């Protein structure tokens, strides 16, 4: 009998400040609708130098352990997915391991491939457990990132930051992953990158969207082929993608989920052999508002209020989806699409656990967001202009971590 493996619980950490996206639009002389309707944004997380990728990761992981009563002696792997590394050699995972005082007998490492790194880490953990190599132990996978493009740039309203920690085990109360049903697609492209030594990423925006959609189409078709072989979906009165209760997407900005969903539907319409006859009609059918509202819209609540979180964006969508509909989706299969520039896409699926609502209630996401402080555009700009290596002397909130100082290139953290 195959093991049931997947996500048992999760926790979220976000910077303690945010800006209202309409305030940002007005400050830049832009119609707020360009950011709200055009990007699907409401708020944008703003981090200060003390809230780096390590402190956010450690805070999310500590919150997961505390909220869910995790027995850390049963952990055997810690993977951090990030594209906001703090050192070329020493991984964020080692910092998190030390700050949380986790067991010595663990495998720890970072996973980097732009926004795909978190999913790569999750699959390493899932397959480690499914293979039997874990010997009953669980894994901690943390996705942590800070999306930074700079003041008054085209990418400014798509910034953000935060971390999502996932407990992966043989008790998948949140999501039992369909092990081995993954579809993947990779290509060597320059759509988004951050050269060594730069704080701000570089992006070829329109090209990156094309790369995302092309890679996603290949990954989805790969998943669909395997799912059909196992009888999980079929060509029927409903398209194969419509046979998934919900589909969650990597969300660099919320409007991207609408483009992605139309692309998935277009793959089905093009391949069905019985869809609309003309390309124009297929394109129009792919943009179904009813399908988007039913399968996608409710997953975006957290992303709209936090912004881009790179590796954590898909898992923030998962948190938002299960926060909104955990009880209603229990026992139902959902699809998840991860994309990382450079590029790699992976489409996989899983069944929502019967205890999903209970686990999400413990994550207390409403309080996590409610405790944040809304700041002015002037304060946001001040924070953005602070040097990364000189964090302000701010005492961390109970249960959280902050970067305290960097001395001789060694990072010191305070908190929890």
From TrEMBL:
Q: Which CDD domains does the record match to this protein?
A: init_cond_enzymes
Q: Does the keyword Transferase apply?
A: yes
One GO-annotated biological process of the protein: acetyl-CoA metabolic process
- Provide the transmembrane region boundaries: none
* Signal sequence, renumbered to the chain: none
Residue ranges of every copy of the Hydroxymethylglutaryl-coenzyme A synthase C-terminal domain listed in the record: 176-283, 288-389
All residue ranges annotated as the Hydroxymethylglutaryl-coenzyme A synthase N-terminal domain in the record: 3-169
Keywords from UniProt, A to Z, are: Transferase
Q: Could you tell me the superkingdom of the organism this chain comes from?
A: Bacteria
Q: Which Gene3D superfamilies match?
A: 3.40.47.10
Q: Does the keyword Transferase apply?
A: yes
One GO MF annotation is: hydroxymethylglutaryl-CoA synthase activity
Family designation? Belongs to the thiolase-like superfamily. HMG-CoA synthase family.
Q: Name the PANTHER family for this protein.
A: 3-HYDROXY-3-METHYLGLUTARYL COENZYME A SYNTHASE, HYDROXYMETHYLGLUTARYL-COA SYNTHASE
Name listed for the protein in its UniProt record: Hydroxymethylglutaryl-CoA synthase
* Lineage summary: Bacteria, Pseudomonadati, Myxococcota, Myxococcia, Myxococcales
């Amino acid at each position: 009998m195959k093991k049931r493996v997947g996500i048992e619980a999760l926790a979220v950490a976000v910077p303690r400040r945010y800006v209202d996206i309409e305030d940002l639009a007005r400050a830049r002389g832009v119609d707020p609708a360009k950011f709200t309707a055009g990007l699907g944004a409401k708020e944008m997380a703003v981090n200060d130098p003390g809230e780096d990728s390590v402190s956010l990761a450690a805070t999310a992981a500590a919150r997961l352990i505390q909220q869910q009563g995790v027995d850390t002696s049963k952990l055997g792997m810690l993977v951090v997915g990030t594209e906001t590394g703090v050192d070329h050699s020493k991984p964020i995972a080692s910092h998190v391991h030390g700050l949380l005082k986790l067991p010595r007998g663990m495998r720890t490492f970072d996973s980097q491939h732009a926004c795909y790194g978190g999913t790569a880490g999750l699959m390493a953990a899932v397959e480690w457990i499914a293979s039997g190599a874990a010997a009953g132990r669980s894994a901690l996978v943390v996705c942590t990132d800070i999306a930074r493009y700079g003041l008054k740039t085209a990418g400014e309203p798509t910034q953000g930051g935060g971390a999502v920690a996932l407990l992966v085990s043989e008790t998948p109360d949140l999501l039992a992953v369909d092990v081995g049903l993954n579809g993947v697609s990779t290509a060597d492209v320059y759509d988004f990158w951050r050269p060594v030594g730069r704080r701000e990423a570089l992006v070829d925006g329109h090209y990156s969207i094309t790369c995302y959609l092309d890679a996603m189409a290949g990954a989805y078709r790969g998943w669909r082929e395997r799912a059909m072989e196992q009888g999980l979906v079929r060509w029927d009165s409903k398209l194969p993608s419509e046979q998934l209760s919900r589909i969650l997407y990597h969300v660099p900005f919320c409007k991207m989920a609408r483009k992605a969903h139309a692309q998935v539907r277009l793959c089905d319409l093009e391949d069905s052999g019985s869809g609309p006859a003309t390309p124009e009609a297929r394109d129009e059918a792919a943009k179904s508002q009813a399908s988007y509202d039913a399968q996608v819209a409710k997953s975006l609540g957290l992303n709209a209020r936090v912004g881009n979180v790179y590796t954590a964006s898909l898992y923030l969508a998962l948190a938002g989806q299960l926060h909104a509909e955990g009880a209603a989706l229990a026992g139902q299969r959902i699809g998840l699409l991860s994309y990382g520039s450079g590029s790699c896409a992976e489409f996989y699926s899983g069944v929502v656990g019967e205890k999903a609502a209970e686990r999400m209630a413990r994550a207390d996401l409403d309080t996590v967001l409610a405790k944040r402080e809304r700041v002015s555009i002037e304060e946001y700009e001040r924070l953005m202009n602070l040097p990364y290596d000189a964090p302000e002397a701010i005492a961390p909130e109970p249960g959280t971590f902050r970067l305290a100082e960097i001395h001789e290139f060694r990072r010191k953290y305070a908190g929890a």
